[in-house]
Predict the structure.
Amino acid sequence: MAPSEPRSVPPAGPVPGWPLSALSAEPPAAFADPAEPPAAAPEPPPTPAEPRSTRDEPWPAPAEGMSSPAEPPPTPAEPWPAPAESTPSPVQPTPTLAEPMSSPAEPRSTRDEPPPTPAESTPSPVQPTPTLAEPMSSPAEGTPASVEGPAAVEGSASPGKSASVPVEPPSVPPAAGGGPWAGGVPSARAGAEAAPPWNETTFGEGDVTWAPELPPGWVAAEGAGVVAEEVGEPEVVGGGPPTYGPEPTAWPEADLEALDALVPDTVLDGARYGRLTLRAAAIRGDSARYRGRPRGDALLTARFGTGDDALLLLAMAGGPRGADDAHQAARDAVRWIAGAVGRSRARLAEDLRAARRGELKAGLHRLTDRCYGRLRARGEDLGLDEGTYTASLRCLLLPADPGCGVRLFFGVGDGGLFRLRDGSWEELDVAPDEASAPFRFRACVARPGDALVMCGAGLAEPLRGEPELARHLAARWSGGVPGLAAYLADVQTRVKGYADDRTVVTVWDD
């Protein structure tokens, strides 16, 4: 069947090169070598004996043998007839604009480069078909790689099979062993660093720093005296293992209308500022874990201000045992006292530097009273009996200035304040000034090597009542600062007969 009119018709008269097709996958002109033959066309012409392949053909090509009767048939050795301006071949006339292309693989050259002569493009009759495993030895090296279609040179395996021809850019001639692109797969050139595999990540701009930059005047801690060790199961001290298991059992029931009131089983925190290293933990008690009750203790850690003017607040609160709203009252207490301290930060920092003990005690007493006034008002709003919506409150206020060693404790209710110095425990908790005003306040000056421990009643009671627990924690916390996981394991040390929530804060001074 005669082919239809060609899709692209070059202008009349001699032209410097064949026009490029919009659908062609021809590489850019920078990769064409003027001294070597152009690329073979990606679509093969069909023969009468074999149907034309339709894979990757942008438009149909004229069938072989259907050209004009006046045109002599092409010979197998002439796959690339030259354009009109080149010297015609003695055995193959130059195709004109009125004649269809008669070669199975018509050349397409760039506009800026003249096509090669037929003598240059005519392959040797004994030339073997180039394969992916061996380099090309004829001037056809430089044709684009992976040109699919029937082989246009004599000696190909089959006219209907595709042949992939390797390409070498004109600036670097191919080596005798096939060139850097032998086999149709690009590889690193000689003297160039090989590219990493596609599925590997590399960093090309030096080391990667994951931590943010420190504020001006701060120095990064190197180790900070933290003891690295393996952490196993919590140890058991005292007369025997407790009745309950060491792991959480049940979660509390959630209220769809108060999902923000959910409390996690465990809270763990830590930080380092200047000469201070801090650890804090709050753990639901064994009894609450077994019965699916929420943790009644609340823990809050906060920094107000920046640099040496900053104040560090560590606050904990515990609601009445067994009360349904105990966890919510404890959370309100630590949030409200933190807000009051943050709003008075400037005055508190000034009094701390000047060591004005009287002003600090009076000011913190007023802030604490306001917090408990809000708790009473909240209980009335909830319709609860007077005094039932409350919590014990204990706070540590620390200056971030490394030149100030004052440590302030204040609060209301049960718990404990201890200092571990030279491997021995010292109890610093004081009785309230008056029974009607149960406010507790203590100011002390730290020494290097001290460990200040503030805890709720859930840990203060076994520390006072079980000597083996006191000896165990003294040995653990006197030798250095434990990591977060190790500190949590220390707080979880199991003692029979003590199943309440445990909340504790420890401050080490270097």
Notes: Residues 357-381 form the longest helix (25 residues). The CA atoms of residues 423 and 475 lie 7 Å apart. The mean pLDDT is 73. The two ends are 96 Å apart (CA to CA).
